[in-house]
């Protein structure tokens, strides 16, 4: 691990001072917790030789294994702007899905006081792809399953409990060429020693000719977000894909749709055996193998009324009546 050095010159009356603090990022034993409170007329010596009068407190927080020492200098003075009081953060985490919040929990337990930029999921909700998931049945500790939003709410609360500072803002700029690093969001700028990028993924699209025209007006990539809306409720719907995402969306939509068609480009499903069994045994789902989605069609009112499909093996095209089309074809990383 790299060494982190904090050089602070402090005049605190007669014979008391703190000079250079150099400690490794990983230690076998906790360091000492102490505070320094100078007299009212003390000075803080800043880089460049300038001095300013202020009431100064220096905190070196106790550390656990693999924890960076947090050196925070806070000053109360009208001459110092608030940004100077914040100093340099140990860690900034970008992203609020399972990876981002888990990193925040571990960092918080290590006394790193992480700053988390949660960002926004489409629709203004942080929390990652699990916010658009129905039942999470394979996460340890929940024998009866738990919904994605409920799970992420618990993980978020746990991160906050361990001291993570959360900002529901998008990061717009990162400078990692200079040390300390700079992370700028839509509302603030933060200096930090380390950055974790946990930005997750975005649902893939088919790029159909009329996709943009009907996006959010008949085409969606989130069944849990839109399935119960008046636009789709009680209608015949279609889902594209053959993996766990597509089968899960199809099963969820049967709660609200009159019937669901699952359009699979291959000759078999790629979903887990448990999901395959559920789909194949559901009378409200019809599977269409070797079927490629070509485009959507509309009625005279400009509403989506069907899906133009093509048989992969024969090339035959036909229109499948449906009022909505849902994508379940995977995701692309947001780090690209």
Structural account:
This protein is of the alpha/beta class. The protein has three domains: 3-81, no CATH class; 90-202, FAD/NAD(P)-binding domain (3-Layer(bba) Sandwich), CATH 3.50.50; 206-328, FAD/NAD(P)-binding domain. Helices cover 17% and strands 35% of the residues. The strands form eight sheets. The chain has a six-stranded mixed beta sheet, with helices on one face. A five-stranded parallel beta sheet has the order 18-25-19-20-21, covered by helices on one side. The longest helix has 14 residues, at 148-161. The chain is elongated, with a radius of gyration of 27 Å. The relative contact order is 0.10.
Descriptive labels:
336 residues; alpha/beta; six-stranded mixed beta sheet; five-stranded parallel beta sheet; 7 helices; 26 strands; disordered N terminus
